[in-house]
## 1
Amino acid sequence: MERFLKGIDASPGVAIGKVFLYKEVELYIDKGEAENIEVEKERLIEGREKTKTQLLGIREKTAQKLGEDKAAIFDGHITLLEDEDLFDEVVELIEDENIKAENALDQGISGYCDMLANLEDEYLRERAADLKDIAKRWLYNISGIEVVDLSTLPKDSIVVARDLTPSDTAQLDLENVVAFVTDIGGKTAHSSIMARSLEIPAVVGTGNITEILKGGEEIIVDALTGDIVINPTEEEKDIYRAKRQGYIDEKELLKQLKDKEAVSKDGTVVGTWGNIGSPKDVTGVLKNGANGIGLYRTEFLFMAKDRFPSEDEQFEAYKAVVESMAPHPVTIRTMDIGGDKSLPYMELPHEENPFLGWRALRICLDRTEILKTQFRALLRASAFGYVKIMLPMVISIEECRKARILLEECKEELRDEGVKFDENVQLGIMVETPAVAFRAKYFAKEVDFFSIGTNDLTQYTLAVDRGNERISKLYDTYNPGVLAAIKAAIDGAHQGGISISMCGEFAGDDRATALLFGMGLDAFSMSAISVPRVKKNIMNLDKVDAVGLVDRVMEMATSEEVLAEIDKFNKEYLGK
């Protein structure tokens, strides 16, 4: 048996424990004739209701532990579960073919998933994966098979699976589960994002660990480097216990930075902000010492409803965050629906390339009533703290000007109504497209600030779908072309006299802190747990040294050369 495996370090930490091999229970699909069609239809309905109850329970636990933005994943699952077209198709199979509920559901789901999986539309292909997860639970409930409960595992368990769904990850009992490892996945997978929020060590993308292990083995998971050690010796365990303690001690030391500003050795003050999806997430932002919010994803407010939220409902949500963070800035992004996010009550057109289609600001400028309602709520909230309004998915100066006109119309309406708001509220844009990044100085004349969204900027610059596993290795923000786009955006912002932050995953990658600081990034906005480490890095940097790193890196031809130079610098100046 192999003793050493390598994967992707998806959520930091070090753990030693025993393997719980999580494999799907094999389902027996009874293909015999139905004795009573009405009974089979009732079994189908009861199974669906039980599944819905389970998903609602998981959603509630997720909201409590991780916040509404993570919980909103399950709203989409429930919407798929309640798809009446699918349900009617399964009922027809029961009636027309006189078959049992589980057989009809299995056939109906398989056909539906095959149809979706063969589409070019990445969003719909992802829905096929979600539907398979839901269908498995539904089939278990029809068949009377208990779904494996990951919340009741023995102490010091390490879950090893081919993959973990969001519902799997949300159920992990952090008192007993010390880490998880998967065959597939990457840093931007739902399970990886949730693991970071849960602060549980995770290594993903190992390839075949579920084929190597039988369950019950003792393993070490080093999620700082992506290394797995199977059946470790006592000496190896001692080494990793020391490494784990060092990581824990460092985390405790980082807590001492909570109330300190991120000021570099040469006196440069840098914003260290948090990203949130709902008012509940503010607690984690404040706990980790963030001095602002660089991204409030308002789409989760829209996704949690069965209709568009009213102006008053939006106002209350924004006001709660703004008051909690005052006097620090709260950057609130307007509705970013489309691409990989949909609303059950808003019919979006079927598109071959939804990430390049009718989404985000494009929808809002066509449906101006949506944007004006949100603008009015945001303006009203600005009376209670420091609000910055941010537009997503911008490609043209015309879009900026149209949005500015609508904002001014809303201001005029509120003045006429005698409603207070910040007359100087800032309007900024996300830098997510090469169209903006490489002409940033011109856009800087039209808006008040920029924020770089590296997730989309990377995929648009490289023409790589970040959700496609087959080409996921090509999705690389350290690619020199992406770094050139980031630097062009930062240089353009400063030439235009405005500030620029970053709110993509890259901002929380402490390997990249020195490079981004050297490029002149004014603020880093990230998952709350990443704030202390990035803050510490900045406090140990000198601008002259970091600028030198940038000069060297921008002359390099490959990602490998870039990373080697960054690692060399980090080892010398940050002790990493």
## 2
Amino acid sequence: MDCHRRPFLPAAVLSALLAFAVGQECAAQVAPPLPAQPPVGPAATIEIEPALQPAPPAVAKVERPPISFNAVPSPRDGIVARLVASLMPRHHISSVELNDENAKRALDLFIDSLDPLKLYFYQSDVDEFQPFATRIDDMVRAGDLSLAYDIFRRFTFRVDERVAVAQQLLKSDFDFSRDETIIIDPDSASYAKTPAEARDRWRRQIKYALLDMKEQAESAKKKKAEGDDVAEITEVDPIERLQRRYDRYARRWKQTDSDDLLEMYLTAVTMSYDPHSTYMSPGTLDDFQIQMRLNLEGIGAALREKEGNTSVTSVIPGGAADKHGKLKPDDVIVSVGQGEDGEMVDIVEMPLQDVVDLIRGNKGTLVRLGVKPGGSGTLVVYKIIRARVELEESAARGEVLEHRLGNGPVKKIGFITLPSFYLDMEGARQQKANFRSSTRDVNRIIEEFKTKGVDGIVLDLSKNGGGSLTEAINLTGLFINRGPVVQVKDSNGQVQQYADDDVGTAWDGPLVVLCSKFSASASEIFAGAIQDYKRGIIVGDPASHGKGTVQTLMDIGQQLFQNNRNNYGALKVTLQQFYLPDGESTQRHGVAADLVLPSITQKMDVGEGDLKYALDHDRVSSTRHDVYSMVPADLLGELRKNSQQRVAADKEFVDLIRRVDLYVAQKEQSTVSLNEEKFMKRRAELDAQKEDEKEGEELQKTQDEIFRDTFYNREVINVAHEYINGLQKQNLARAN
């Protein structure tokens, strides 16, 4: 929960992490005032000349006392702001003009990007910003960025105040026997109204940090004595660690330049439309392009800022972390070390881009990550050998399982794991005979399955975050005769259908698609089409991820000068939305499972609907398409009933449900006790849950393993077996 951010990358892409807890009080100084509200006239269309022009003059500002802020607006910033304000309504899927509602959202997002836990600003500061809540749209259209600088100056002023007070409080004694709490839910927190209230809040923040460090040290010693790999126990005094951390934090904000601030501010404006529309500064665009051009080596994991922590959002199939097998989505990385004995660098106050630079490295080298699994509990160390993500290792793979349900006959079930919808675009462009694609690989596996006489197929998309739209369409075509697979609506409201035009199928027998809340984008298109055609059943979490939009990257220099020789950054804008054949959007709602199995992932806040200002779900007209007879209502009801009975009788599922309930209860807590005994008891419960989860992962798949023999996957195969039986009894075992 200890968190602060620094503006280097868009919040939805690579926002920065500055995590720590401090004590504070209001120093007897005058905060820098905001200027008077600027006069705003009627909105006008901004014509951008094909040459660099200075931004319109800003409204005169009131003189401020000196502050520690060295960022100076670049002459091009105003033009970039005006262009972004012009491009968003022209290209965004909503086609909505930048308006007062966007302005209100942008102000909230910008303030939240600076102070997500409401630890720095006073309520009076935020109240002073509010008159501008409906002015930001007009100001940005006019190229006026004065408000961003004024709010940021106020913020850095408060940071200096808080860090100074934190250093004072660290010299005092703390009573850990008091029965008091700290708010850990940002939505439940409020800005301090008085110096006394602020000081008390930050006294609690320091107590929380000290208790956290003490618990980590004690837990690490215990685990180390038991022979487990845990993060090295630091010999640095906790007070000294916090003193260094706070000083580094204050220094980092003073390194903010005009590009950093422009990125934060314009990203707040674009994210008022939806969470995937962002502005990339020139530096961020450079880094993005390097990553697109080069096959960079590292651990193969995507990171983001989540409530002030460096959190793992996904583990890339075929990458080093995937092979290692322990790093999971929702884990929090708090330290990074190089090699076997390099110093473990505390990254809690470090910009996320710097964290990425520390983790990235040459293949074959070792990096050590200090990780809190699930964001809490014992700090463990994962030793990962960096590697390059190889297509071969992230490609589709399959195996045939011989399965018996009760005393019935053995069924042969083909199990395919598909980590992504991949396509060798260069090979396809050159019409190479053997270019790689997910469709080609799955088709090859199916042909092998048919020679072995499989009765049905399970396609595992539970960790598939998407990929090529073309591949989603082509792969669907392996299981349907022909017809529309997805509909796409653009910012003009025009809807275009994309169909499988190849007659025939590779597999017309029983099909089970395994999905989770991590199944996104192209996975949802495939699963949704299979469901609309009633071609197979969807099993897993209640719904998939829910990302039903597509983004494009618009080079600002290209927009201004018809070339990209001048780097002005880029606008990533959401310009299309996906719809299934029956007209439903996958946006927010995802694809609902036909048969739900218990899991912790379904309770994680990792779906599209968990993001602020995510676009709404809607629908378009349905398209004409075939409807197969592969999902009889009576059979589906029987499958659900029988699966529920097996789950209720399975002790591992019963224990999973218990852990899910505990996870939800802990997640819903808005406060944590700062009484040492109660704090340690809660942590012990968290650690016990992690141990339970660790036991469930002892069968962690190896690099060569395709099907993991876990209680969850066994139930998936049970469902598939019963589904095959049911179709055969009704003479529906083929999709004719």
## 3
Amino acid sequence: MTEQELLQMRDLAEAGQMQFKERANDRYDIGCEMVAFSNSRGGRLVIGINDKLGAVNALSYLELQETTNLLTSIASENVIPNVLIDVENVSVTGGAVVIATIPEGKNKPYHDNKGIIWVKNGADKRKVFDNSELAEMMSECGSFVPDEASVPNATIDDLDADTIKLYLMNRFSPVFKGKNVDELNMKDFSLDEMAEFVIKGTTIEKLLRNLRFIRPDGKMTVAAMLLFGKYTQRWLPVMTAKCISYIGNSVGGTQFRDKMHDMEIEGNLLHQFRTIMNFFTRNLRKVQVEKEFNSFGELEIPYESLTEYVVNALVHRSLNMKSPIRIFIFDNRVEIHSPGALPNGLTIEDIKNGTSMPRNIFLFTNANYLLPYTGAGSGVRRALEYDPNAVFFNGVEDKDITHAANEFVITIPRNSNQAQPQSNLVTDKSNQADNKSKQHRTNLVTRKLTKKEEDIRNFCSVPRTAQEIMDRIGLSNQSKNRQKYIASLLEIGVLERTIPEKPNDPNQKYRRKK
């Protein structure tokens, strides 16, 4: 490196990636700086430049030798475990400057010789006391795998049988196709029978052990509870989502169009995904994309983009951070907050280019049998093709975006910014003279689904007969019940018929409308 390059580096130095010291007089302080760099993303320690003024105060030949030896000694004795640094001497007017390059550590967390753990905090450094932050460091290095950790006191009885069956049928689809088992008749088989189809002579408990959802010590893993739990939040209370639709554009607003109750989101990842997507569909406007008056509208933000972003938040969130996923709908934008910045040194450009380095590898490789993603790193790229206006923030403080430094945030502009003061529905003024039945239909679209209706919607992810739907909600298959729970959902566009041209066909089934 030349003197000119050194001065350019000084002038363009980014906070947190470079630290200047006029002299290496304080051995302990230098060690703390090395610890902070090792626990963060690495950086450079420059000796011979005043950290206040940026003025070069060159080291003499003797100082150069002493400083070089001192830095290597500190790296091996004052940083625990020790680190390897690269030391370079740069000739400048009047002497030389020493540059020590400290790489990001592979054995985090590092601490100084007093046992204190440091990380970079902008241009400064700070101590770490929070166990979740320590766990995050260990996860990055592979010394702790949070999705394979145990869930104390949970048993196989705390898992949802239908979700396990759905997972098995998707993962071992050739086996179940050969046995003529599908989502319509899977309830006819017990979990042990399903396991027997996969491996002859096994039980569901043995199969889940083989698949590593149950640990050798017999305890359920975090991944098992996230994917299959009946009441996941009983065991993992922060593995949830907070969904709020605000009136206005400030997270400090006190008026809401829609605020999801905690009980609505309680459940495993499949339930959370469906509930969040329902929150979007009932709070975002539908835009008419075809000229025909009766054509169906599409969400103002492409449904496919929202699907990718929600799945990413659910699967790639930090399991160490004690905070929920947060989803905010404002008049001018949508924000999706996922706990934890990008892992393993990934950058925003990396994920835009399709680089896939999952944070929770075991969860990631199994969730794709329940959630709609491929795992090939194409999700974000595909989402951006549908909606190129989304903006990503990776652990950067920004008061305008309302997020903290330990979050990955996706901000999606709402182009059709015509929100009404008390409703998220935009109505066409030319339709104001419609008759009462159409007006009633519009009102139904804006209302919130009841729990039974939401259950029916999710149940009909595959086609169901009217009898199956009534059995699901525990009612007799009478016309008044069909009218209340099936016809009403058909009317507001939640369900659709599989044989629309023949409503009374004896083979008629109902499925969730995409």
